[in-house]
Amino acid sequence: MTEDEFKELVNSPTFKRLLEVRADVLEGRADAETVEAWQGLQESMTSAMAAVEKALEDYPEDEHEELVREWSRAALDNVDWSFLDAYRLH
Q1: C-alpha span between 90 and 72 (Å, rounded)
Q2: Phi, psi (5° rounding) for residue 87?
Q3: pLDDT digits (tens, 9 = 90+) for 39-50
Q4: Which helix (H) or strand (E) holds 55?
Q5: Which among 83, 81, 88, 79 has a CA at the least distance from the CA of 36?
Q6: 43-61 burial by CB neighbour count: b if 16+ within 10 A, else e?
Q7: Which helix (H) or strand (E) holds 42?
Q8: Exposed/middle/buried for 21, CB within 10 Å: 0-12, 13-18, 19+?
Q9: 27: which DSSP letter?
Q10: pTM given for the model
């Protein structure tokens, strides 16, 4: 990831919202539905990254970054982000 791509990511509304939700979940301010959605997202991402690491074993290391980018873009396009829209800060 380039420096510009990293800046774009951390300044995106979705990333900022994820950080807000994460903080509220960790600090006990999130409602039960949000906690459940967050835990589901966390489990999904952990499982997905394990699958990616396994799949990358078959490719040269210098191709890993681009392959992960392509996979991430495709996978994140299919995530149901609606829980972020419905989430309210307490």
Answers
A1: 31
A2: -70, 135
A3: 998 998 899 889
A4: helix 32-56
A5: 83
A6: eeeeeeeeeeeeebeeeee
A7: helix 32-56
A8: buried
A9: T
A10: 0.63
pLDDT per residue as tens digits for the range 49-73: 898 899 999 999 999 988 888 887 8
- Give every CB contact of residue 42 below 8 A, 6+ residues apart in sequence: none
Task: Calculate the alpha carbon distances from 33 to 9, 39, 78, 82 in Å.
Answer: 26, 10, 20, 12
Question: What are phi and psi for residue 88, nearest 5 degrees?
Answer: -120, 135
Sign for the pseudo-dihedral over CA of 76, 77, 83, 86? positive
Question: How deeply is 18 buried, as exposed, middle or buried, from its count of CB atoms within 10 A (0-12, 13-18, 19+)?
Answer: middle
